[in-house]
Amino acid sequence: DLFGVSMIIPLLSHHVKALGASPTVAGIVSTYGILQLFSSTVVGSWSDVVGRRYSLLTCLLLSALGYSLLGMSTSIALFVLARIPVLFKHSLSICRALLSDLVSESERPLVMGHFNAASSVGFILGPVVGGYLTEHEGGFYKSSFTCAAIFLINALVWMLPGCETLVDRNDSVCRNNMSKGYHENHFSKSVHRGGVSWRDVSLLQPVWKQLSSVMWDLLLVRLLMAIAIMLYYSNFSLAMEERFSLKPKMTGYLISYSSTLGALAGFLVGPVTQLYKNNMPALLLHSTVLTCSLIFLYAAAPSVWQVLLTSTFFAISTTIGRTCITDLELQRGGAQASGTLIGAGQSVTAVGRVLAPLLSGLAQEFSPCGPPSLGVVLALAAVSLLLIRIPKWDARGM
Question: Which residues, if any, are the signal sequence (predicted)?
Fold first, then answer.
């Protein structure tokens, strides 16, 4: 999954620019995240109802269709059309929900860290292969079709008998729990610790009103950091070329190096969590401060070597922060609705995908360092919010 996607993401800005788009127009047509904004929570809730197996299979097949269309995009209109099937690009979210169903709350940070590490392995070779292919004629289109083939292979693997037995057993347990009313009771107990009970909220209200009433601060931190991190990566390849005359192939090596460290950092989540004695709010705050500082150092970097240094620690801090925010959301809302909660988190991230290209395109009109500089401001806002809210979480025992 991520091997194929990581071949495409660094090349999107180059491809849209080659189609004749200005930076601002490129930002607008790249805002496919607006589709995921409306689909993440729906797909997550849908997976809670119909089961992880069929929902994941559907996501894989539609993602393959989307990247196939991207491989045929020779104009801005076709490029926009190719982004529509990513409405169902939620395979990783469903996998996280499945893992949350299978493990206990105490084991969840360790397992999620390992999952993120395994996911990051895809980013090790993907950018290198994508950067290599783009230096040859038709490289972007070859990368797109390769990505589509990977999603098809994943779908075939997911249909193997061993996967079917494991997932069907888990889906059966989840449906039995929900039929007994466990889903509602667990949500009520979990959220009541924060001073709000789901039973106090009308069932006729949209799920977003219920979620925002009990975890608005976590969702806002996720949004701010998502945009900040996306601004860091949004024009990374183009900025390396303009600031340091670095070729896409070398930029691909740099991204793969950072992804390698991110994969290793996933295995450190468990020990670091134990070091913090499972104090996830404190760990989230410290990782956010570190991420903010590294974005600033990247924006002000006078040489490629400083970019290399910031990339070294940036991958580690973002991996830990991503695991922390997911675990805190599941603690706050209840793991039995993991599909809905993780989907809601992905919807917030999708808002970042909508805003980040627009902000990046506008900021890039002024300077190649504009996007990461704006990211620093947003990350500082996230740090400030955590400093205000964490004492209140501690007072409530959350």
Answer: none
Distance CA 50, CA 178 (A): 12
Q: Which of 345, 353, 288 is nearest to 321 (CA)?
A: 288
Q: How far is Cα 26 from Cα 237, in angstroms, rounded to an integer?
A: 14
Secondary element (H or E) of residue 196:
none
Q: Is residue 90 part of a domain?
A: yes
324 lies in some domain:
yes
User: If you average pLDDT over every residue of the chain, what do you get?
Assistant: 78
pLDDT at position 349, please?
Answer: 82
Report the CATH number that the domain containing residue 30 is assigned in CATH.
Answer: 1.20.1250.20
Q: Residues near 117 by Cβ (< 8 Å), separated by ≥ 6?
A: 262, 263, 264, 265, 266, 267, 319
* 88 secondary structure, DSSP code: G
Range 298-303, long-range pairs (CB < 8 A, 24+ positions): 298/232, 298/372, 299/369, 299/372, 299/373, 299/375, 299/376, 300/369, 303/244
DSSP letter at 103 equals S
Answer yes or no: is 228 within a domain: yes
The token duo for 315 is 């991958």
- Split into its structural domains, the chain has a count of 1
Q: What is the pLDDT of residue 187?
A: 43
Low-confidence ranges of the chain (pLDDT < 70): 21-38, 86, 123, 161-213, 334-337, 395-398
Q: What is the pLDDT of residue 190?
A: 42
CB 89 within 8 A of CB 29: no
Domain extent at residue 291: 2-172+204-395
Query: Is residue 168 in a domain?
Result: yes
| Residues in contact with 109: Cβ distance below 8 Å, sequence separation at least 6, in sequence order | 269, 270, 273, 278, 280, 323, 324, 327
